[in-house]
Amino acid sequence: MNLARIHDAIRSNRIRITNHAIDEAEDDDLLLDEILASVLIGELIEQYPNDRPYPSCLIYGVDTTGDAIHSVWAYNEDTEWAVLITVYRPDPARWIDGRMRRK
Fold this sequence. Notes:
Blueprint: H1 3-11, E1 15-17, H2 19-27, H3 32-40, E2 43-48, E3 56-62, E4 68-76, E5 81-88, E6 95-96, E7 100-101
């Protein structure tokens, strides 16, 4: 997946946000602006090419205080829209520095 395409979709306001992502953002006290900003400065850490209906990826970013944010995005090549599937603050028991899964 090309992270630049997700960036372009965000900057062009071609995004869809699932109800699940809205619920998860509320649970973790995440605001849409900080989620989007975290993606624009973030890094792609996992790809899920077999996801349907569109391939997706996990993006690591941080909020203004430096706390980690994970967001899962899909991208529709035909419409050039990005879809925020879910978002959360990574659990330190499962992630090393928010970037690598613990074994």
